[in-house]
Structures are given as C-alpha cells and as structure tokens.
Recover the amino acids of this structure.
C-alpha cells in the first residue's frame, strides 16, 4: 500500500484550509502569524540568481562596515596612515580569493550541507568538529549583533531619530526578526533578491558615477568629513607598532569575509548540479564582494572621508574636537553623500537598501543557526528533535537563545558596530582554518587510494589550494587573536567554550543513555519477554469512555482482565457496583479501599502486589482519558489519570494504555495541533529536502 | 486477596524513609518542607479539649477586635454614646446564644461535615447552596485578611516596629502561613491548643484581676487613652440616625460570631459520639466567647478606653487632635495596659498570645477553604481532584488564590482591621440565614413523616430554635447590608458573585461533558466495540526500549502486528532495516517516507489510512518511552513520542500504549513522586477519614 500519497494529502489539505479559515487564536496569530503549508517547503530548489542573494547577503552586506573599520583603525596613527588602506584592501582581496577558491573545493568534496563542521569532524575528529561548531554558533550571534547595529547606523545616516535611539531600535529589529522566525516565515528568494540586488546595483552605480565624475569630469567630490582633521593617538608610529596597527586594520577588514561559509552549508538547497552551481555562486559572490570593497575604499580615499576610532576626541573641526554629540556616519553613507549629494534620492535609496541588506544578513543567522543545530543534533550534540521537523518548542528555544544573546551584546556594547566587530571574525577564522586543514587531510586520504592520473592531478591542485587557504586563514586567525584579544575577542572565545561544554555534556548524556539501552546481541527477545499479561481497566464511573476502554481491553485477549476502582466515596462506589451488576458487565470489578481519598497510591500498590505475586506477568493498565480542547478543561479532567500514569511509568513491567474519548471540545485542540504542525522551521530552505529514494524507496514494506 | 495491608505498607514505608533521608531537592525542601506520611493523617480523631482550640480559634480570637469596633462606631456620636455599649454587648450575646443553639441543631441533623452548604443545598436547592458556598469562600478570604491585620495591630502594641511596617508584616505573615500550608503541615491539636488556652486564660485572668481591683480594692484603673477626649462627628445624634449608628455598632460587634460554622463543617473530625461532642464544643465555645466579649467591654468602660473612628482628627489630647502619627492600640491591649500595666510581663504575654491566636484563626481559613472546596468538588462545582487527595497542584492553586486575595485586600486596605471589618460578616450572615431557613424546612419535612410524639416534640423544639435563628440572623444580615454596604460590604458581595459565577460555569461544563459521555442504557458494549485490533509498534532504533515494546505488543495477540518507522535520515533507516533482518525479528517493519523530516504527520496519516481502510478495526499504537529523572532530560528525550501521542489521542479508534523503559536516572523522579504523594492536603484533619467499611468492605472483589 502506498501511503501519504497525493489523494490523502488532498483530503488533509481541505481540512486544514477549513481550520485555518476559522478565526481562532487571534492574539497568537497576530503575534506569531499563520503557519504555512509545510509540503510547500523546498518545493523549488534555488536557482543561482536566487541563491546568491539568499546566501550572500551576509558577506555582501559586510562591505557596508568593513571599509570603515579599516580607516578607523588606521586613523590611530593619524591621517598619513590612510595611505596604507589600498594595501590592506589588497590583502583582503587576496584573502577573499583564497577563501573562495578553498571553499569551492569544499562544496565539491562535501555536497551534503555539513559545511565546515562536517569537514572538520570527518577529517580531524569530533573535537575539531565541535570546536568549529561552537565557533560558528558564536559567529551567528555576532552576525546578528553586528549586522543589525551597522544597519541601524546606516539607517541613521538618513533618519537621525534612529541614531538617537540606537540601542532601542537595534533591539526592536532583533525582536522583529525573532518574531518573524518564530512565526515560521520561509526564507523567500524574492524577499532577499530585491534589496540585495538594489544594494549591489546601488554600490556599483555609486562607484561608476564616482569614477566618472572624478576621472572623466575631474570634479572634486568631498565627503561630509573631508574638512575634518584627525588627531593621531600615536603620531609617527613605526616599526613593530606600525605593523601591529596595520595587522589590526587588516583584521577589521576581514569582516568582509564572514558568511562565505554559508554557501557550503547550503549546497543541498541548490538546483542540480548542486556542487557546481554552489561553486559558481561562491565565485560570483567573491567577485562582487571584493569589487564593492575596493570600490568603496577607493571612493573613500578620493572623497577624503575622515574617520577616527574615538571621534569625539580625535576628530577635529577647525582645530577643535567635535565632541560627544558628533555621530560618525558609516563610510558607505559618507561616500554616497559625496557622490550623489547628501539627502538626494539615490542617497536615501542606498541607505535604505544597505540597512535592509544588513537586516537580511542578520536573518541569515536565524536560518543558519537551526541548520547547524540540525546537523549537530544528528550527531547528538544537541537535542535530537532539532534534526527532525516539527518540534517548534526546541527550535523556538534556539531562536530565542540566539536573539537573547545578540540583544545582550547589542545592549552591552551600545549597538556600536565598531566595538562589536572586535568580537567578530574570531569564530569565522577558527572554522575557516580547521576546515581547510581538514580538507588537506581529505585530499591526502583520497590520494592514497586514487590511481587515475587526471584525478590525482586535480586532487593535488585542490590540496594545494586548501593548504594555502589553511596557511593564510590560520595566519589571519593568529593576527585576529593577537590584535583583538583584549579588545573583545575574549568574549567570543568564552562563548565558544560555553557552547563546547554544553554540547559535550549533551553528547555524554546521550551516549550514556545509549549504552544503557543498547540491545544485547544474543537472543534479543528473550530477556524482556514476560509470559502472560494481566489487564486492568481503571474505572471511576460507568460512562462511554469507560465502556470504550473495557471494550478495547477485551479485544486484546489478555490472560486476565479486571476492572479496578478506588473507593474515595462509599456512595459513589456503591452506585457504580450496582450499575455494574445491573448492566451485567462480564468483567470482574475490584474495589480498592482508600481511607484518605488517595487514588494513585492504592492503585500503584495493587499493581506492585500483582508484580510481586507473579513477577513474570506484565501488567497492562487501561486508562480511559477525556480528550478536551482547552487548557482550562485540562484542569477539570484527567488530573488523577495523568498523575497515575506518570507514577505507573516508574513501575517496571507495566504498560499504560490511554484509551481516548474525544469530547466535542477536542475539535478546537485538534485544529490547533494541525496548525502547529504546519509551521516552517527556520533554516529548512537551506537544508533542502531529504534525498528521497536515494537509499530507501518510499513506504517500502519489508515483509 | 487482601491488598494494601500492613505488610506492604511496611515495605513501602522503608523505601520512603530511605528516599527522604537523601538530601535531594534541597532548595524546595527548605521552602516547602518535607512531606509527612499521609497514613498518619487522621490517625486520631479529635477529643473535645483539642477540637475546641482547633475549631474555635477564629470566634474566640475575634474578641480581640470586636469590642473595639463597637466603641469605634459609637464614638461617632461622641463619648456619651459609649453608654450604649453594654446594650450592644447584650445584643451580641443574645445573637451568639441564638446562633450556637441553632447550630447545635445543625450538627445533630447533618453530621457529615457539609455544614451550611449541605443544609442549604439539601433543603433550599442548589442555588441557595451555591450562594452559601460563595459567601463562605469570600468569608475565608476575609478571615485571613482581618485576623492577620488585627494580629499585627496587637503585636504592634508590644513591638512598635511591627505597627510601623503594618502592611509588609501582614503580607509577610500571609506568605508564611501560605508556605506552611503548601508544605502540607497537618493542623496539629497541640499547636493550636497552647496559644488558644494561654489566650483564653490570659483574658479571664485579666477580667478577674480587673474586677478584683475595681470592685474589691476600688482602685482606679486608667487606660492609656483615658485622658483623651473624643470630638463627636455628629453631636447629639437622635432618632433614626442614632438607631442607625447603634445598628452599625452592633454589626461590627457581630464580628465575634464569625467562625461559629467551622464546627458544623468539622463534625467528622470529632470522636464518637460525633454530633454530641460537636454540640458540646459549640456550647463551650459560645460560652467562652460571650464571657470574654462582655468582660472586655466592661473593662473598657471601667478603664475609660477612648477610641475614635478617625483617631487623627477626632481624638483630642488636651484639646488638640493627636494627629496622623498616633497609633490607636486595640481595646484588648489598652485594657491589658490598664489592668496589668503597660509593658509588664502579663501585658506582653497577652499581646503575644492574642496575635498568635489571631494568626491561628487565619490558618483556620487555610484549612476551611479546601475543606469546603472538597465538598463543592464532590458536587462538581469545583475541579473534581479537590475531592480526592493528592493533587497538590489543585490544592496549591486554591491556597495561593486564597492567600493572593487576602494579601490584595490587606494591601488595598493598608492592613487596617477596622476598614476590613466593613467587608466582613456579610458572608457569614448570608450563610447563617440560609442555613437556618434550610433547617426549618428540614424539620418541616421530617415532621410530615414522623409520628412518634417524643421525637415530634423534639423536632418542633428544634424547629422553633432554627426559626428564631433564621429570623434573627436574617435581621442582622439586613442590618449589616444596610449599615455597611457603602463602607465596603459591596466588595464582599462582588466577590460572592464572582465565586458563584465561576462555580456555575464549572458545574455547567461538567454537566455537559457528563451528558456527552453518558452510556446508553441498551447494549452498552455494542456500539463502541470494534471487531479487530491492528497493533503498530513505533520504532526509531533497535534498542532495549524498542525490544521491550515489541515483546509486550506480541503478548497482546492483536489480529495484526507491525513495526513502523519514519524515514527522516536514509542512512539511519538503512541501518535499522539491516539490523532488523540480521536479528531476524519476526515482525514486519514498515518504513514511512518523510521528505521534510516530519514524524508526527506521516504516522497520523498512516493510522488514518488504516482506519479508513477498515473502519471497524481498532488501532493500538505502542510507543517505547524513556522514563527519565530530570526535567532537562525530558528536553533531550521523548519529545517526538509525546507530541505524537498527543496527536494520536485526537484520532478516533486509536489507543496509545506507553511501554516505559526506566533509565537509571528515573530513580530520582520516582523518589520525588513518592515524596509528593505524602503531602498533607490542608483541611484533611477537619474532614476526617472516609467512613471505612460503612458501605463497602475493604478491597472487596466483586467477581
């Protein structure tokens, strides 16, 4: 029999639409929204033109803050240090090319979506894998914090109110994104595509228009801060100190590289040929990112943008510090003001698109976090239910954790992207480095067995790329740690340690349980199989639920069957007994005495006495249960049954059967449950569907 | 077979002691305390000398505030009105005798502990019964609020700090009592006896000593306020206005009568002959209360106690108002200061005993509230589990509700007993009146059938007493409502309406469910009995829990048996299938496809398809369940199983069997569950044990 087929789906869908169209749960609906059909999930795999904005909004958006951070750090040594910025840009470009080239190898070798975690886990062992995972989890938190803070700053360059209430606005956006993702909105290609393409187009037009004006028309464009002077914190820096400063500036510039790994986690979401399309998208993304990054640095130099690490003190206007009230606009908005003019239509559009892309970049973390969680859950580092769909509670907990941590950081650091960036990148480069080292091992292993010369050549080439990648990213990691540790990178490391510890503990728990319940190899059925069953039906009154439970219990052909009631009220018990006889129910009714009106204890002790009497008998307890529709009805029903059930589960050799009786009101709960089921887990688009029929045909009956 | 006997109890007790001696749950233990053995509950029924303090602390303690309230109201018409106070005391005494005489009839006629509610319900119908119940519930809240506020004021006469932080202290005592009762401390006779007897003895010594000094030694005793003057708010009040004032004073004096009904609710807790002992205790209590009440009024007159309704303005010292800073001590403490001397040993002991008795009176409400709740639950006006023991949650909710409402009142009324008393008494007199009217009807009914002259005479006498009681208490109710409605009685009425509405709604719900599930009279088994059973064992992996579930399912001889797994991970499913074959498990394994990694939906749809195929088959689903010991382990296990179970219960024709597998960690939860079971529900002493063997012999097996 084929189950779950189209016909049934059709029927179910009709029911669902009916239930959704009724206006129940109004407050929750308004807040969390209507659930979407899960069988639409991944109905279409992503074409490259959609995959690019979905996966690349994070790295592309980082050009909104990375160039500024470079200038900011250089300003410490005074305006003269600005001349190093093209060299730093060049270094970032080389790094970007290296990383992109390396990851193109990854997506070909590991198309399953495990990304850096899988690569490190497979090739370097579980500890390396878990380190990468912890690093990435921390990085997701920081992606949210940094992207939203930067988005708020960009929005603020057009709308002053936003900058004046920076922290509140940033937290507001976090809350909004969180609600959106709890609601289960599917990552939609078009939602991502429009602002991302507007942003990319805007930046390119700006660069082109700036180049045209500057080079062809030879006009002087002046940034709003062009007339400012910079007071060097350390004048005439040279030797080691200068190198250290340049390395710090480079570290900040590396923020442009965050999010590159997203594509390698999302390979299953691409159309076929998945790996090739992913690699192409990766190259496209790298090309766009470096062009935009360099273009903005170039324009910033051309328009004399001035940024300082401590603008209040070190930025001078007519020789006087600008003071606390001064708001330092992001470099992209200063450049836009110089090229398009402050407040012009293009300026505002670009600011809005920049902010939007940055918020989308934050949303990327909301999707990447559960995606990684799902893979970690598969390896039992996180609760198992993150791997399957549908446990909204667990997913929600993860999202709330992510949002809470990000909001905390935003609040502690005053939504200041410059300060938050000090924490950033550590995680990314930990995972870059470990992943590339893993890839080198991967090729080494494969080279051992591969004999075909063409493939060997290819592998050797790939290994060289990954080896260079490992070397370079490792170097950057050392630089980042050295230059940023005291500036805040320690916070990121602490976060990594916490994630690592938690996940290790969860894995240890699962392992110990797994060892406890592992089935013995020999005669598996023997040791747990009891010889007979005694069935007991719990009875309080003679009504339909009881009669149904009795009828069901009879069907099961137990060796013995009896009904059991507890005497908490002599009058009621007498009435029950009389009705029992009057109806001629052919099941013996046992009455337990309970002088203190307890229900649980007499039943438990009776069951225990049966088990003691004949330890090889299993006891099957049937509990008639009302199925109700509202929480307050739960308070009025089933309490004794539930408590008893909970206690019986602790008694070995007992199985507990709920025989439900659906009250009319249960329809409401049924509808709610269905709606809940149709929730879209964040990250599910990136994860792609299970490779259907890859190893098992559908609904195969293995008789 | 005899079950629940001594031997088994012994074994269970040993286990319990072991589990309790382990120091788990430390924080909770400190707060809520160690649970007590429930089979000690009601081990001894109460002798009269213990029953008196347990049941009478409420009415006896009210002499601590009632006399003062009388003077307070009279002061409105100036000092001259104080001369009416003996007349008012006389009226209260007459009322007390009437009420006591009436209730002596009640306890003889209704020894089951249903009290006023039962009397009104039986004789006047459910609406009257529910009105009485609502009134009593409101009164319990007010007993807590008034007694604790007054206790704080009495304590404050010895310890000024307490009066300075009245509200905080009062709320603190409420919290303390609440925790005590949540903890499940048994109402202990000796705990009640000592302070109550110290209080009674102290008041009698004070009266005797005062009388001896005043009459025999002819010394002048002067209360601390003897030199104060009272500015009459309404000088020279006469005619209707004066009568109204006197009636208001009388209403306040009636506070001495609250709690009289407690004995009629507690008859089952008395030793045999229960009714006679209860009636004697009632008479004793009445005698003590009126003697103390009159004695204190008499001493207050003799020592020139001056109290004013608004002391700050109307109490003059040397012609000047005493002002806001002045604290008006309770009359009992002023009298004690006059007789024993302020701050002397006797004074402090009496103040402490008074406060303690008042707190015990409040505790009485904590026990009376669930007791009444239990009776209301039996009639399905409140959740059913209040009738049986053991649902700590429900009891706790009730207690927290009581405490919350009392604390709210204390806070709103600034822990001012004078203002709170305006709300009090309404409830008591509603229930007095309805109960007495009910008793008249009761005798009328019995007189119709009774032919024996001696019994008829007795009944006619009882009827006369109850009729007078009904008339008098009804009159008082009208007086109370007329004189106090705007002063706060409306709040009490509002509370009654809320309780009435809630209980009606609950009853309506139970009735509608009851009608829905009522078994048809004809061929009860027929319509619900399916013809065959198909058993399905849910499988995720092949481990001990799964093997146990398979073994149990096999025992049940279903018509068809299959194992079911959902393919959320092709690799795992492949491994499962291979192991299934390797182990040679002779149950067919069905694999459901789930492209989007859902578990619940494919299973539900499969079960539905079976039901559609053969609607007369029942489906029995076996779910292997881990039993774990800590909440965080729940997050890591069973989530899919629980969610699935919840959804299956909504599917008609399905029964769900949990086959538990007890992990080692489950021991912890088992112990916690046992401890929870040994909790003492508040009110259980008053309620007495079920009349064992009265109608049903213990553990009778009705085969």
């Amino acid at each position: 029999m084929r189950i779950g087929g189209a016909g049934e789906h059709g029927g179910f869908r009709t029911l669902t639409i009916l239930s959704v169209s009724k206006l129940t749960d109004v407050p929750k609906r308004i807040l969390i929204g209507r659930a979407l059909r899960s069988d639409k999930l991944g109905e279409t795999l992503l074409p490259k033109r959609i995959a690019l904005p979905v996966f690349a909004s994070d790295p592309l958006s980082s050009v909104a803050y990375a160039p500024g951070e470079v200038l900011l750090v250089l300003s410490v040594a005074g305006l003269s240090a600005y001349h190093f910025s093209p060299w730093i840009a060049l270094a970032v470009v080389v790094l970007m090319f290296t990383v992109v080239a390396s990851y193109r190898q990854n997506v070909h070798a590991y198309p399953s979506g495990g990304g850096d975690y899988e690569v490190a886990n497979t090739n370097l062992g579980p500890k390396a894998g878990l380190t990468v995972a912890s690093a990435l989890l921390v990085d997701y938190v920081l992606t949210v914090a940094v992207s939203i803070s930067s988005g708020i700053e960009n929005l603020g360059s057009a709308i002053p109110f936003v900058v004046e209430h920076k922290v509140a606005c940033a937290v507001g956006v976090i809350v909004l994104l969180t609600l959106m993702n709890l609601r289960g909105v599917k990552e939609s290609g078009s939602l991502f595509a429009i602002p991302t393409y507007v942003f990319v187009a805007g930046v390119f037009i700006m660069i082109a228009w700036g180049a045209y004006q500057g080079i062809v028309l030879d006009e002087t464009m002046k940034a709003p801060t062009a007339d400012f002077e910079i007071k060097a914190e350390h004048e005439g820096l040279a030797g080691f100190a200068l190198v250290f400063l340049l390395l710090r500036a480079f570290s900040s510039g590396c923020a442009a590289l965050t999010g590159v790994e997203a594509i390698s986690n999302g390979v299953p979401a691409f159309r076929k040929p998945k790996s090739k399309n992913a690699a192409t998208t990766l190259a496209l993304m790298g090309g766009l990112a470096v062009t935009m990054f360099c273009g903005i640095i170039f324009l910033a130099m051309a328009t004399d943008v001035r940024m300082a690490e401590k603008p209040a003190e070190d930025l001078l206007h007519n020789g006087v510090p600008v003071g606390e009230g001064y708001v330092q606009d992001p470099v992209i908005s200063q450049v836009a003001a110089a090229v398009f003019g402050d407040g012009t239509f293009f300026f505002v559009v670009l600011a809005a698109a920049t902010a939007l892309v940055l918020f989308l970049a934050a949303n990327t973390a909301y999707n990447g976090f559960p995606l990684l969680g799902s893979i970690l859950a598969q390896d039992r580092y996180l609760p198992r239910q993150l791997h399957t769909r549908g446990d909204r509670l667990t997913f929600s907990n993860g999202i709330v954790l992510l949002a809470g941590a990000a909001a905390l950081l935003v609040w502690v650091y005053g939504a200041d992207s410059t300060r938050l960036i000090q924490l950033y990148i550590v995680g990314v480069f930990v995972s870059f480095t470990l992943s590339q080292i893993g890839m080198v091992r991967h090729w080494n292993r494969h080279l051992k067995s591969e004999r075909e010369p063409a493939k060997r050549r290819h592998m050797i080439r790939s290994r060289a790329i990954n080896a260079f990648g490992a070397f370079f990213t490792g170097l950057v990691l050392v630089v980042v740690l050295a230059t940023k540790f005291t500036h805040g990178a320690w916070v990121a490391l602490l976060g990594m340690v916490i994630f690592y510890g938690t996940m290790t503990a969860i894995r240890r728990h699962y392992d110990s349980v797994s060892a406890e319940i592992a089935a013995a190899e020999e005669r598996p059925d023997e040791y747990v199989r009891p010889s007979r069953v005694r069935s007991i039906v719990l009875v309080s009154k003679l009504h339909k639920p009881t009669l149904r439970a009795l009828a069901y219990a009879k069907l099961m052909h137990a060796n013995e069957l009896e009904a059991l009631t507890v005497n908490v009220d002599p009058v009621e018990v007498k009435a029950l007994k009389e009705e029992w006889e009057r109806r001629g129910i052919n099941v013996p009714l046992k009455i337990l005495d309970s002088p203190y009106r307890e229900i649980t204890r007499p039943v438990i002790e009776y069951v225990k006495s049966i088990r003691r009497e004949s330890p090889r008998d299993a006891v099957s307890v049937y509990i008639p249960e009302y199925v109700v529709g509202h929480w307050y009805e739960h308070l009025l029903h089933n309490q004794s049954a539930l408590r008893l059930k909970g206690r019986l589960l602790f008694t070995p050799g007992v199985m507990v059967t709920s025989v439900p009786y659906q009250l009319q009101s249960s329809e409401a709960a049924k509808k709610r449950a269905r709606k809940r089921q149709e929730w879209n887990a964040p990250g599910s688009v990136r994860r792609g569907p299970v490779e259907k029929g890859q190893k098992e045909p559908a609904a195969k009956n293995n008789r």
The longest strand of chain A covers residues 617-627.
